[in-house]
Design a protein that fits this description.
21 strands; 3 domains; about 35% strand; Immunoglobulin-like; about 5% helix; elongated; 4-stranded antiparallel beta sheet; mainly beta
Length: about 375
């Protein structure tokens, strides 16, 4: 009898598992760190042990902490508005990379969140955070050798200018009000309101922002326009530092716009005049120094002179029958406008009365009279 041999299965040979040398990056000791904190910024230093990138984000202190995905997206998240964000490429392991932050608010607390990632996309296991406070700004003040002053040479019938200079970056605020108005405080001037807290119109509020030391202690002009001629106003002035702390007290200036220079309405020299006299008519010439209207009237010689109202009415008056009358529009200053009078009686004397009026309705001071006799 033949017995089959017992075959014992040979266990499979297990291949050794090779674990790839993939590890998350780590911060260099002492990093990230912050230095050179000023009123408006700081320097942020990062360094990690592998090439790749560092993603960072600045948010207001006590904001909800972002996730790695939110930091990487570089977008506002939840109810948090990002102050600054960015990506720093890490091309050299352990090398210190610097980012300078600016335009932050003075005396304010912020938190920077960041994490590193390798070139292969392996991220650090935790998010790093560091909190810092920008320096408190110095109080704002007016420049000692350039105190606010009304620029009298630039006062016109419709505008007023004030020159002023501040000592550190900040904002100059000014409002203009009727002279009899109660005085607003610095907060109201800063917000463009009157003393009752009512918002002023845009042309009554001025704001001049100075962002660098280079522009400090240099006169800046605050100008109000579209004002009424010959009118007094109260101008209130203050300035703040970058933390919006205003100078106290508010400065007040009472300034008047210039009186308008009114050029009287007058005839051009030697006008009105007549020429080209015939038996039945003549030519009548008028010219004045402003655009407007000339009213004229021809009546028999030695008739009762018309009043201004009668001349403008262009109708018979009292016992006088008008021979000719008319209105001449004056569209060009000092231009000779001609009216031809016709159908008159030969060898007859007539009086021509005229008065000019400007576009604004201002009349000449008196009526002009020219006497003319037609040819025989």
């Amino acid at each position: 009898m033949i017995t089959n041999p017992v075959v014992t299965p040979t266990p499979p040979v297990e291949e050794p598992v090779i674990t790839p040398n993939i590890t998350a990056p780590e911060w260099k000791s002492g990093f990230p760190r912050i230095d050179a904190i000023t009123q408006t910024g700081c320097k942020y230093f990062v360094a990690q042990n592998k090439t790749g990138a560092v993603y960072y984000m600045i948010v207001p202190y006590n904001s909800i902490q972002p996730t790695a995905e939110q930091i990487k997206a570089q977008l506002n998240y939840d109810s948090v508005s990002i102050v600054k964000s960015g990506i720093k490429k890490i091309n050299t392991p352990h090398y210190e990379y610097t980012t300078s932050f600016s335009e932050l608010k003075a005396g304010t607390e912020y938190t920077i969140y960041s994490f590193g990632e390798t070139s292969d996309g392996i991220a650090m296991k935790t998010i790093h955070s560091v909190t810092f406070t920008t320096m408190q700004p110095a109080p704002q003040s007016w420049s000692v050798d350039k105190e606010p002053v009304v620029d009298s040479a630039m006062i016109t019938t419709t505008s007023i200018r004030i020159n002023c200079a501040i000592t550190i970056p900040g904002t100059i605020y000014a409002v203009i009000l009727p002279v009899e108005s109660p005085s607003p405080d610095s907060s109201q001037v800063q917000q463009g309101k009157d003393s009752y807290g009512i918002d002023l119109s845009a042309d009554c509020v001025k704001e001049y922002r100075i962002t660098s030391d280079f522009n400090c202690n240099i006169y800046k002009s605050i100008e109000f326009t579209q004002l009424q001629p010959g009118t007094s106003y109260s101008i209130y002035l203050t300035a703040s530092n970058t933390n919006e702390q205003c100078i106290e007290p508010v400065l007040k200036y009472i300034v008047s716009t210039a009186e308008p220079v009114i050029t009287p309405l007058e005839w051009k020299p030697d006008f009105p005049k007549v020429d080209t006299i015939t038996q039945t008519g003549f030519k009548y010439f008028v010219a004045q120094n402003k655009t407007g209207t000339v009213y004229f009237m021809v009546v028999p010689h030695e008739s009762t002179p018309p009043t201004i109202e009668q001349l403008k009415a262009q109708m018979n008056y009292d016992s006088v029958t008008i021979v000719k009358c008319g209105i001449k529009e004056i569209n060009t200053v000092n231009y000779n406008y001609t009216t031809t009078m016709s159908k008159l009686t030969a060898n007859t004397s007539y009086d021509v009365y005229a008065i000019g009026e400007s576009r604004e309705g201002v009349l000449m001071g008196s009526i002009n009279k020219v006497t003319v006799t037609t040819a025989p």
